[in-house]
Amino acid sequence: MNSRRRTPAATGKPAAAASPWRASRERLRDRALKRDAVIQAAAREFNRKGYHNTSLDDIAARLEVTKPTVYYYVTSKEQLLFECFVAGVEQIHAAFRDVRTLPVPARERLNAVLRHYGEAVASEFGWCMVRAEDQDLSPAMSRHIKALKSEIDHGIRRLIREGVQDGSIEPCDAKMTAFALAGALNWIAHWYREDRTLTGAQIAQAFVTIFEGGLRPRGGPAPVSSSVRTRRTRGASAR
Amino acid sequence: MNSRRRTPAATGKPAAAASPWRASRERLRDRALKRDAVIQAAAREFNRKGYHNTSLDDIAARLEVTKPTVYYYVTSKEQLLFECFVAGVEQIHAAFRDVRTLPVPARERLNAVLRHYGEAVASEFGWCMVRAEDQDLSPAMSRHIKALKSEIDHGIRRLIREGVQDGSIEPCDAKMTAFALAGALNWIAHWYREDRTLTGAQIAQAFVTIFEGGLRPRGGPAPVSSSVRTRRTRGASAR
Asked: Which of A48, A120, B179, B216 has its CA 20 to 30 A from that of B170?
């Protein structure tokens, strides 16, 4: 309906100013925004009640729409969980892309990724990021989620190895250290639901400071500043 | 049946040597051993298939007994999950008790606790320890589990604060550091099911080494040896 107001006839502007594609682009954008709203509502419900205890009816009720409206944006509850998962991990994938060419030691690039990771887990998508895999999903969906997680795991290991090589990280077992870092961060989704005395950004910073103590070389340079902040993709709304 | 062989009449020994309570003590021990077997079988099933996908029939089948036999040892599936949880966390509680009076710096006591923690999470009780809370338990059971977990959390924070005070731990935010340590360890239950290239003890040691790098004071003494090993309570079999 909104798009009708912008047709040449309605605005009185020359046809050239309003491309015949414009209305359709706006409809697409409108659809994307509504789809994001559905995903965000789902993330909140899954977070609050768990995946199995949440129905598409609950999500529709939260959005004050009907269930068929929800089906217009996603094909199933499973797909909805997957979209919530992706909204969370996309923030981490974006952080990896952003730091790739930064001309700073690998520890600083790793810190930036871990900070975004922490913020993502503390976001409303955190529960879905961390728990999606345990919800008896279809084998195909499960494989997809595992692959995306594995990419993050290997990205962290790679940055650790680069840091050991460039001297910014104390030599360590990259695989175990990556598991320890990811575990510490993933666990935020568990306790943060009940203890919200800090913001997600504050928690992420506190964790990076803790990790920093373990990662930086013994007798090495002072901790890096927390200034390496990359553009952050804000979950569903940025997709 | 076993106990009958040991009654005075059967052994021919004087009644004084075999207390009339002995048979009943042995029956109790026998019952405790069988109960532990039920708990261990349950832990394996929960670990493999998840709590909601496991029935008491599955557990009975694994033990080659009937379901009523299982009910002889536990009153419900929920209680069974709770017992599995307790079998895991008891190893950590025991470690706290063991290190309490050790005349070593707090960091070494903390290391010993964290090593037992890591081994417990990598044990067959790990999944139940970490996931019990998310299984829609009764409010009373949930509170009980939370209280036992909270005790561990506060025990770790206390050791961190003591370490900062005695100079064996770099000053840090005790609460956040305790969350980071516990998170890293809890997450073992997640990935260890699929990646069993190391033993639980090796993983626990690798994690303590990683933590050690972050905990010990900058420019402080060299890492402590891994010799502080306390008596370990072996899960269900020691209860």
From this structure: A120
DSSP code at position A221: P
What is the rounded CA–CA span in Å between residue B69 and residue B63?
10
Which residue from A159, A165, A28, A173 is spatially nearest to A106, judged by alpha carbons?
Answer: A159
Specify the amino acid at residue A14.
P
Return d(Cα B106, Cα B163) in angstroms, integer.
5
Q: Which of A210, A215, A216 to mutate to test the interface with B (most CBs of B within 10 A)?
A: A210
Residues 53-92 on B with a CB inside 8 Å of A are 53
Identify the pLDDT of residue A172. Answer: 93
Mean pLDDT for the stretch of residues A103-118: 96
- Interval B29-76: pLDDT, tens: 888 899 999 999 999 999 888 888 899 999 999 999 999 988 888 889
Report which residue type is found at A12: G
CB-count exposure of residue A191 (10 Å: 0-12, 13-18, 19+): middle
- ipTM for this model: 0.78
pLDDT at B228: 52
User: Which pTM does this prediction carry?
Assistant: 0.80
- Cα pseudo-dihedral A50, A51, A57, A59, rounded to 10: 70
Give dist(CA B183, CA B166) in Å, integer. Answer: 25
- Measured between alpha carbons, how far is A104 from B42 in angstroms, rounded to an integer? 51
Q: Tell me, what's the pLDDT at A3? A: 40
Collapsing DSSP to helix, strand or coil, A229 comes out as coil
Q: What average pLDDT score do residues B166-182 get? A: 94
* Distance between CA atoms of residues A213 and B216, nearest Å: 9
The C-alpha atoms of residue B36 and residue B56 are separated, in whole angstroms, by 15
Does B180 contact A at CB distance below 8 Å? yes
Residue B69: in which H helix or E strand, if any?
A: helix B67-73
Q: Minimal Cα–Cα distance from B36 to chain A, Å?
A: 27
| Backbone torsions φ then ψ of A64, nearest 5 degrees | 60, 45
Q: Is B220 on the interface with A (CB under 8 A)?
A: no
Inform me whether the C-beta atom of residue A46 falls under 8 Å from chain B C-beta atoms.
no
Tell me what pLDDT residue A12 has: 46
Residue A159: which of A144, A141, A181 has the closest Cα? A181
